[in-house]
């Protein structure tokens, strides 16, 4: 987990806490780098000791593992990098640090260990988490998911409280947070529990830990818009039997069209990505047509009358740039005539002197399949 900041004790108790907290980031494994040894010559010298075959593995071990991918995958040794558009996930684990019952039995002669005056009992352990982001002063409360703490087994046959923990157990929760902006993020985790013993009344203890990490940008999107020659809307595509002819003024009515270009650059240092989605969501009054890799059809499928080919998604290595283009057209006046009155579906949106086309959405996957998604602001062209 990124570096840990100062731990604060909110209840003023100076003695050590009976519960510890561990925060670990959840991330996918990566391919391990292997450096195999050269194969021995056919007739090695008799006095030359050859290395064991397992020495050529990334993690030599005398006992083979049943997990076939163990020498191929490795977990990140550190926190790693967090990028805008990805989902930050981590696990929170509150561990009971009290000695197990076996150790208490060696120091107490009483058969009822739980009734000893020095035996501490912990109950009502709760976890809460907040995320502080650069753009807001108030932290964001994060929902936690995971199993509830299982009740301990009672040796006397009586029911015990569901949250009571006597021996070494743990409470584990998982949180997810969508990273939407660059800069320093602070994860604050608060642990609250009740501690009591037969010789002292119950007391509520609380402590809090802060974890800071830096979120970096993954993609840079540069856009450019331009006006294309207007398309004349005629009645050639309409059936003369179903729709009556229109007036000459309507026949010559033109609808404007535009070209929207975007350059997508991977600005990471060591994170190749695969583009899975580049989509322009238009506003009312416009239709968008993608002019990118989705429209390519293989020759064999053309001959067989098939649909679009299953194409390989574009891969952006660090520093690579991919250019995409969309044809943006005003909705056909025929569609406007057929639309329900009062909905204003074909009215264009103008904000601060700019004709708004829509929002560009980009989705990708990392080297090991981790998902990412981001969307731009409103894109359009300035009108005079």
Automatic annotation (TrEMBL):
Pfam assignment, any one: TRAPPC13_M
Origin: domain of life: Eukaryota
Sequence ranges assigned to domain Trafficking protein particle complex subunit 13 middle in this UniProt record: 257-379
GO cellular component: TRAPPIII protein complex
Region annotation (Disordered) ranges: 138-167, 229-256
Matches recorded under InterPro entries: TRAPPC13, TRAPPC13_M, TRAPPC13_N
Low complexity bias (residue ranges): 229-244
Ranges for domain Trafficking protein particle complex subunit 13 N-terminal: 17-215
PANTHER family: TRAFFICKING PROTEIN PARTICLE COMPLEX SUBUNIT 13
Protein name: DUF974 domain-containing protein
